[in-house]
Specification:
The protein is mainly alpha-helical. It contains 18 helices and no strands.
Length: about 475
């Protein structure tokens, strides 16, 4: 096991960012679920596609280069001033280029998706590119690299709350999809201001830092992040381009929104793993690196497996509860897609182990072929099996990616999660999901069912001695430490 202090540090950072990410994804789902009911399947489908396009564009700058800044700051804070100056200039230049390209290709993108009404929405969403680029270099780069996880969490939380208020204010004012997109742009501006305040003044340093280091790490990390996001959205784009029924895009957007819940819940863990693994590997502490990997995977499995199986088993009730019976067509693809997103969540965590270990190119090399596979499978399966075919394409691709990344981590670091732990977690998860399948309930009681089965799941883990006093101690240390 990880030592008490290092374990508490990992759990504490993860706890802070998990709470913030819960606020982030809850706010996102309030927006998704509210707009789904307010706009109806057709307009909601347009919103989902435009949001996905905007996220693909912004991901080019909000992931790899902030990760690079975080990594180098975590390794040597003496270079803080030089790293910030170099990364900020690079981010501004690249965001200006990307903004111009995305705006200029708005009509081309809309034509590829066979919907000219997307053009004005794509143009509006271009405003998010420079704002999210600078916001993330401060939030996910500088604050994360300095391991200011508390300030990072506050920034994300307040930005998320702002997003909900502005989105619904503009939509209810009659701006529709345009207002929703502008709400996301405003949230990025608020987040940037908060992160800038938390960072404070940065002392100038004469320690040299080459901006090419950011490129050598940031470019493959960025390619990986874009590839990862495409793996989560190629299916939606395929549904929009291949299926002529506009409401089907709305149904699949609903299924994807629910299926991504486990992914967003665990988005905090890679953010903690990156500087943590980077520091342990740079100091050649192999035993600590191994312990971090095993701990991260075990806790992830402990939560993601039961969540995934429960959502899959109760997909009809969950869709009806959240979106209304009008979206019942989303239930079957959801039951498949949630499994694929669970695979993708584990793939992401393993990939960040490689990235934190200074091997972003490995994550890039593994993820790019997966995008090609996903596109081919989506075209083939969506045309034959509709929404369920799209879900199957993503699930199959994600499974291949997980196997490949697990093989690399096992070979390079010599560890994954304990097989005994994995078996116990899967057994307990299968028990509670099996109960969910056979108990007939009204969809309004679905949250109560989840709560009851969650308690049963924890009891099963305790009885099998999988959840023990060491886990409780680590959690208490994280909560009580300052």
């Amino acid at each position: 096991m990880v030592s008490g202090r290092s374990s508490a540090g990992l759990v504490k950072g993860t706890l802070y960012l998990t709470i913030a990410n819960i606020c982030f994804f809850v706010s996102g789902y309030v927006i998704h679920f509210g707009l789904g009911r307010y706009l109806g399947p057709e307009e909601y489908g347009v919103f989902g596609v435009v949001l996905a396009l905007m996220n693909v564009a912004t991901l080019i700058l909000v992931s790899g280069f902030p990760d690079a800044a975080s990594k180098y700051i975590a390794q040597d804070t003496a270079q803080l001033g030089a790293i910030i100056n170099a990364s900020r200039k690079l981010q501004l230049v690249l965001s200006a280029v990307l903004f111009a390209c995305y705006l200029g290709l708005a009509t081309v993108i809309a034509n590829l998706l066979r919907d000219s009404q997307l053009v004005p929405y794509i143009m509006i969403s271009a405003l998010a590119i420079p704002l999210y680029a600078v916001y993330n270099i401060y939030y996910a780069g500088y604050l994360n690299g300095l391991r200011l996880f508390g300030q990072q969490a506050v920034t994300l939380t307040l930005s998320s709350i702002t997003r909900v208020g502005v989105v619904f204010a503009l939509v209810f004012a009659g701006l529709g999809v345009s207002g929703a997109i502008l709400g996301y742009v405003t949230a990025a501006l608020i987040g940037l201001v908060l992160a800038w305040i938390f960072l404070g003044s940065v002392p100038q340093t004469h320690v040299p830092f080459r901006w090419t280091n950011l490129l050598s790490f940031g470019v493959p990390a960025t390619i990986f992040s874009v590839a990862l996001f495409l793996l989560m959205n190629v299916d939606l784009f395929a549904v929009k381009a291949i299926i002529d029924v506009d409401s089907d895009t709305g149904y699949y957007t609903a299924a994807a929104a629910i299926a991504k819940i486990p992914y967003f819940v665990f988005a905090a863990l890679p953010a903690v793993l990156l500087p943590t693994i980077s520091r342990s590997t740079s100091s050649n502490d192999k035993s600590l690196t191994v312990q971090y990997i095993r701990q991260a995977l075990r806790y992830t499995l402990m939560l993601v497996v039961p969540m995934t199986l429960l959502v899959s088993a109760t997909s009809e009730d969950l869709v009806t509860l959240i979106y209304s019976a009008e979206y019942i067509a989303a239930a079957t693809p959801l039951s498949i897609l949630v499994i694929g997103l669970a695979f993708l969540t584990l793939f992401l965590i393993l990939a960040y182990v490689a990235i934190g270990g200074g091997k972003p190119l490995v994550a890039c090399v593994i993820s790019l072929p997966l995008v090609a596979i996903d596109i081919i499978l989506s075209i083939f399966l969506v045309g034959r099996y509709g929404l369920s075919g799209a879900a199957c394409a993503t699930t199959a691709t994600a499974f291949l990616g997980l196997v490949a990344m697990a093989f690399y981590v096992l070979r390079h670091f010599g560890t994954l999660v304990s097989i005994i732990s994995a078996l116990k977690i899967c057994f307990a998860s299968l028990v509670v999901s099996g109960i969910a399948l056979v108990i007939p309930i009204h969809h309004f009681l679905t949250p109560a069912l989840y709560a009851g089965l969650g308690v049963l799941y924890v009891l099963l883990l305790i009885l099998m001695r999988e959840f023990n006093s060491r886990d409780i101690s680590a959690l208490r240390s994280a909560i009580s430490s300052r």
